[in-house]
């Protein structure tokens, strides 16, 4: 089977991991990104597509032509802003092709609802709430697809765990973009004198000194991410407020790496986890602070729990498992 993948080629993106897993499984793959047909910075291209209809149609018409030239059996789309007419064109030009969409984000990221205006053969999304709406309200062929970990990248850092914790010297770590909701929650930890280190992108629009002072001025990926998350005593993972019943990609990445995480409670967590979710989730920021203070001195317990979770996620929540499920559905 020849598979085409339409989406980002950035390292550690969903599409990067899908591409890696598809290649690992032995499929012939054609991966195309917007940057392959227009050589301008992504942010300018994004806004031009968003506000100029003819430009948007021009870009995705070029992408459609490239995909038609490849004659794939299956096209996997991940961008939320794909022009519906480009998908219609591909369907007309390639007989018997299956075209699906995988949406890895929460419900605030539907752009202009291009996904719902496009005749995909199947829709995959991570939130049961959205799946229910798509299937039972819009009558779409929608399926539940949680996020995953890449077992070749999201894996434990090869180092003695106790020695690594001494080296990294971090009680609580958080990483990613410092949105205001995340800053407010992390600020509550700092107020309680918890040793927090932050990696990723600070909030340059609404910065708070008490937050920015904890940034390490480093964006972590790959083995460096594994080193930091494995070597920190606790990984604080607070989900976006629009995650109704779903969880973020970090949840799977942290577990795959073998970090010990404390995160928001969601009812779907138990179906993913090898641990009882009440042992590592909170419903209030006060509960999160209590959990952090409870586990900080319990190194052996943290290591044991993280190892159990890591093995479970590599077995049941890899991108290969997700791809096999997708192919079964279609």
Automatic annotation (TrEMBL):
One of its GO terms (molecular function) is hexosyltransferase activity. Coiled coil: none annotated. One of its GO terms (biological process) is glycolipid biosynthetic process. Keywords: Transferase. Residues 184-328 form the Spore protein YkvP/CgeB glycosyl transferase-like domain. The keyword Transferase applies. InterPro entries: Diacylglyc_glucosyltr_N (IPR009695), YkvP/CgeB_Glyco_trans-like (IPR055259). Residues 45-135 form the Diacylglycerol glucosyltransferase N-terminal domain. The keyword Transferase applies. GO terms for cellular component: membrane. This is Glycosyltransferase.
